[in-house]
Amino acid sequence: MIRKVLAVVIAFTLTLSAIIPAYSADSDVSVYSFYTDNMLFRQNEEAVIAGTAEKGSVIIAELFDSGMNSAARGEAIADDNREFSVAFPAPEGSFEEYTVVIKADGKEIKTLKNVVFGELWLASGQSNMQYPLAQAINYAEAIEKYKSQSEKLRVLVTPDYSQLNDTKGQIPSQPLKDIPDSHWITGSDEHIGGVSAVAYFFANKMIEELDIPVGILNVSLGGSTIASWISRESVESNEQVKNDFITYGKYVELSDWDKEKRSIYYEMSTNYNLRIEALRHFRLSGMIWYQGETDIGWTGDAYSRAFDLLQRSYTDLFCYNDGLLPVVFTQLASYFYSEEGWELPSRNVDFSEIQQNEPDSRALISIYDIPLTYFPEVGVIHPGSKREVGERMAHSALGLLYDKDDTYTAATVVKSEIKESAIHVTFRNTGDGLMQSGEKLKGFSLCGEDGIYVKANAEITGSNTIRIWNEDIPSPLSAAYAYSVNNEKSNLYSSVNGDFAMPVSPFVTVRSIGTKYWSEKTWADCDDMQLWHTVDDLNSGFYPSWKSENSTVTIENSVLKTESADSTFSLSPVLSYEDGIKQTGFRDSDNDYSVFGRVSLCVKNSGSSPVTLDCIRFIKNSYLWYSASVADTLTDSVVIPADNEWHKITFDLNRVYLNGNEFGISFSNSVLSEVNDIEFCFASEGGTSMLQIDEIRFSPSDEDPGIRFEADINAAKTVLDYISALFVNFIGMIVSVFR
């Protein structure tokens, strides 16, 4: 009898096991890894939960409010590929914590707790986006400041794939469906320091302004090219972008993919396959993007085309239905990518044009005024000041999407006009009007038909207009602003409610004109005793702007002051640094002065006796230097009277003397192509010398007289001097006949 009963029980059990699926830890039903406690869905959209299950399984996702009352419900059936995505309507954003229960064929398979609804942003790019909060300058201060709203911040943390090529083998040629080991954390989590600093500051600023939770999909990778974030499908559909990728070595035929190990940093679709398509079920509010350093060498419109494809393909991927997916992106911080260094300002101008191509869905922030302080361990390309970047991105997002401010993007040029020997520029997005920090505008340059840019004056002439001019260029053709590697002194801003909003975007009014752009010589402004120089990871930083011999040198009220009790003394701008046992020129200090025709300076003698500016020496090396002649004279020295008045002194760089005016033979500016130091040499006639110097300016010249033989006979003091002067002038007369 007992055996019969056992047989029946066993048979019944086997029958049930055949018809009722088991939902153990080894179940065939699962939701993807990024659905965890503490997650955030975008408000007022469909909330989608996806995963895998046996074909035909009925999946139900039910939303419960904080009182465990049903608030929404969705149902779906697993398809032929054993995949499901179940959606339910997301409620209005709030700080209420919800619970989501997911069932398969009536059996509970997962419960998500502490779920909130708000605004959801994708944060992507390369190292300056990946740069962790724990390494940001404001880390401890930020954690304390945002402590009270830490639970309102939600971040999806994805694994760091930076070592994937070395540890996990080949990157898949097709997009992954899931991101294993991904999970959500709140702002109070102990691992928040590993989250993108830019994204952290962005989200917290958004929380302050919107008063709802904000979520971040934290997905970026240092050193990654834009090509790695775009799908193969998108690239294959765009012939121009495909050709660009081929040109820059980013494209890989699908049939060739497994022939060698693929780079997660440089090759197309790698990061997309690993961490973007898997997130397709999320509904985004927008995207913040900090990338471009790796692709700085892309020329023409190649980067612009890739950016455009990235935005359009993500719009489709994340089912964004209100036009193009909004993208807030940033210009790049100061860094040298070559010895010339012009790739950076050129790319920052490119970014302005990229924004203007789709102004309703793109916002650009400028960052050249943000401190460049960095940690040597991570390199000068990674400024530690990420708070300003994140908060400016939030400012742009609030204006672009939430109508908080119409200065949502850096002001850019609408048009430029040449009138009355000046270039007049009109801007868009200036807010309440243009403003300047400091007493005078800085960072401007312009050129004439020779294409050689020199420092220019500028003034604000209206709420959205400025005037740019230089007395030495009566017929200007193009103007530029902040177009240099070290451009942090540039100081033109848009404004809101009387406060600075965002720096005006760097620009060039006519990019086709540019034989030689102006490399900022901030020492010549005589405004600061310490200047930042971008060199390399060990030597970039602040350096003295001036040095002196036999005198003291200070800067007060934007004027250089020097005092000396010696009969001779000198001043020199600091153009190099000590690199081990040798002096090395700053990479951002242009040592080519051969394009300039004149240099002028304003000098005031406040002492009791006249002082002679004996010469300005352009030093090529320890034994070779040239002194410039005073304009319209045959001498390289000039007396500064002790009248406590400003005097403008101009020197002719097309009449320079080798090692001083000893023989009356002068050379053109072509010999000044490799200047390693500049020295202003003075001689006093007695007493204490007190000089003030300001506004050292270089101007162009198309004059190229070559070698001149024109000694000043009137300056001869001895018979030998007189005979020498006659001989030099005689040679000059003969040379002029045969020219």
**Coarse structural class:** alpha+beta
In the residues, how many domains can be counted? 4
For the largest beta-sheet, the strand count, sense and barrel status come to:
13 strands, antiparallel
Radius of gyration based on Cα positions: 33 Å
Low-confidence spans: 1-26, 162-167, 725-733, 735-739
What is the architecture of the largest domain at the second tier of CATH?
3-Layer(aba) Sandwich
Share of residues in strands: 25-35%
Helix content: 10-25%
Q: Helical segment tally?
A: 12
Task: Compute the average pLDDT.
Answer: 89
CATH class of the largest domain: Alpha Beta
Shape: elongated
**Number of strand elements:** 42
Describe the protein.
Strands 28, 29, 30, 31, 34, 35, 36, 37, 38, 39, 40, 41 and 42 form a 13-stranded antiparallel β-sheet that branches. Strands 2, 4, 5, 7, 8, 9, 10, 11, 12, 13 and 14 form an 11-stranded mixed β-sheet that branches. The protein is an alpha+beta fold. It folds into 4 domains: 30-122, Immunoglobulins (Immunoglobulin-like, Sandwich), CATH 2.60.40; 124-129 and 133-402, Rossmann fold (3-Layer(aba) Sandwich), CATH 3.40.50; 412-519, no CATH class; 523-706, Jelly Rolls (Sandwich). The model is unreliable at 1-26, 162-167, 725-733 and 735-739 (pLDDT under 50). α5 (197-210) crosses α11. It has 12 helices and 42 strands.
What's a concise summary of this model?
Helices cover 18% and strands 33% of the residues. The protein is of the alpha+beta class and 739 residues long.
